[in-house]
Design brief:
5 helices; 31% helix; single chain; 5-stranded mixed sheet; 183 residues
Length: 183
């Protein structure tokens, strides 16, 4: 009976982390929410992001202007798909932030799954991360990367190819293992 209760609890938790909403969140840098948009570049709807292939390009807006994922060529990049209502997503944010602070060359882009501006604005001060929280207004970036469950994290090599796709929350140890796989 105890195993059944644990199984049902985990099933409910995983189901909760696969839902998405349909509104537009802002970009958040640190604790300051900033309304922003993201745009998928070179859209190929029949293509899903897989390790060994070039990461699908997209643009995002920061306070200093519009940037593209491809602009980060030469740097290791983590793309983390998340939502404020996803407890594992929230729990891994400080771990991701600690990794970024320990490795100044590492870039982390946290792509939110279509939440409202209010939800992101209320969330940002609670975690106070030092990397941008980017909106995926219509979910096209997540779809292009083949994201179904949250959190899902992609580790991008310096040459712009995908090194690893990780589904589920990252512990400090697992994050270190995954980063070691990035070239």
């Amino acid at each position: 009976m105890k195993r059944l209760i644990i199984f049902l609890s985990l099933t409910i938790l995983l189901a909760a982390c696969t839902q998405t909403s349909q509104t537009n969140p802002p970009l958040v840098v640190g604790e300051t929410p900033i309304a922003a948009e993201s745009t998928l570049i070179d859209r190929k709807p029949d293509w899903a992001a897989i390790p060994g292939e070039r990461a699908p390009d997209f643009s995002y807006t920061l306070p200093d202007g519009v940037h593209k994922l491809s602009d980060l060529h030469g740097k290791p990049v983590i793309i983390n798909f998340w939502a404020t209502w996803c407890l594992p997503c929230v729990e891994e944010m400080p771990t991701l932030d600690a990794a970024r602070r320990a490795n100044p060359d590492l870039v982390i882009l946290a792509v939110n799954r279509s939440e409202s501006t209010e939800a992101i604005s209320a969330f940002a001060p609670k975690v106070g991360v030092s990397f941008p929280l980017i909106t995926d207004r219509d979910g096209v970036i997540g779809e292009r990367y083949g994201v179904v469950n949250l959190p899902t994290t992609f580790f991008i090599n310096r040459d712009g190819t995908i090194a690893v796709r990780h589904v589920g929350a990252l512990t400090r140890e697992r994050l270190a293992e995954r980063l070691a796989e990035v070239k």
